[in-house]
User: What shape does this take?
Amino acid sequence: MENETLKINYELSVKEFRKIWFEMFKRGIPNILAFWGIIALISLFGLLLPEMKAIFLIILLSSLAILITSSALSYQAFMKTANHQFLSLSKEERQIELSFERNANGFNCKNGKNYSYISWESIKGIDEFKDSLALNTAGSSLQIPKSAFQSNSDLELLKILITANVSENVKLLN
Assistant: This one.
């Protein structure tokens, strides 16, 4: 049990890639809603002032239109970037092999002809989404779709390794 190794091999599909990017997009939605929602809320309160009703109604409708438009445009740009990034990967680079070993200082990652060793120290945060895990370093993010795990026990083992090695900035679902 001390030198237990977890190997994850999968081919990144466009469907999985889009799911991952959509989960990341949803994470930014609260910021958009907060900003334009505050403006809309202020406008709603302004509607209570009889002499300023027309101005605040225009502000309210404008802020709602901007909220909807900016959300749609952000989604479109986000997904365009996701498609571009996926298409830039060769068939070999879409083949990903990860190897996690208990009591190791990091893990191995291979995609195509690229090989790297990622130390646990370099992981700045880990987020668990409904369909994936994101291991975030200072400059990039390694997304692991949950469909890549052969069983729930493999996923649980990785969560144990993550919790043991990267205790801060970990946001795992329960």
Remarks:
- The chain has a mean pLDDT of 83.
- The CA atoms of residues 40 and 62 lie 9 Å apart.
- The first strand starts at residue 5 and ends at 11.
- Residues 53-88 form the longest helix (36 residues).
